[in-house]
């Protein structure tokens, strides 16, 4: 057991640990989205097709408009 908070990645839903001196997440401010290191690194060139549904739902729930797709046809990871 630890004293930190536990969250879930907004894309893959994997648990994310947040405790003193150990922050296993990346915050995408514009999307109000928390990503685990794997999703952050794996989607460097845009949100992959596997995660599009989760990404679109998250933005809809937060009332954030969908961004234009990038040159690869993906939603940009960061705007």
What does this 3D model show about the protein?
It is a single chain. This protein has 79 residues and is an alpha+beta fold. It has one domain (5-61). It has 2 helices and 5 strands. The strands form 2 sheets. It has a 3-stranded antiparallel sheet, with no helix packed on it. A two-stranded antiparallel sheet has the order 4-5. The longest helix has 10 residues, at 52-61. The chain is globular. The model has no long low-confidence stretch (mean pLDDT 89).
- Roughly how many Å apart are the termini? 37 Å
Count of DSSP helices?
2
Oligomer: single chain
Q: Bin the helical content.
A: 10-25%
Placed side by side, the strands forming the largest sheet appear as 1-2-3
Write down the secondary-structure element order: EEEEEHH
Estimated share of beta-strand residues? 15-25%
Q: Any idea what the radius of gyration is? A: 13 Å
Q: How is the biggest beta sheet arranged?
A: 3 strands, antiparallel
Shape: globular
How many structural domains are formed by the residues? 1
Helix-strand makeup class: alpha+beta
Low-confidence stretches: none
- By DSSP, the count of extended strands is 5
> What average pLDDT do the residues reach?
89
Task: Provide keyphrases for this structure.
3-stranded antiparallel β-sheet, about 80 residues, 2 helices, alpha+beta
Brief characterization of the structure:
With about 80 residues, the protein is α+β, with helices and mostly antiparallel strands.
Topology of this protein?
Blueprint: E1 5-8, E2 15-19, E3 22-23, E4 26-28, E5 33-35, H1 37-42, H2 52-61
């Amino acid at each position: 057991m630890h004293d930190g908070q536990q969250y879930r990645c907004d894309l893959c839903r994997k648990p994310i640990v947040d405790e003193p001196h150990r922050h296993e997440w990346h915050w995408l401010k514009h999307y109000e989205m928390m990503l685990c290191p794997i999703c952050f690194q794996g989607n460097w060139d845009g949100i992959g097709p596997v995660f599009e549904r989760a990404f679109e739902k998250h933005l809809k729930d937060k009332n954030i408009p969908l961004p234009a797709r990038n040159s690869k046809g993906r939603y940009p990871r960061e705007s």
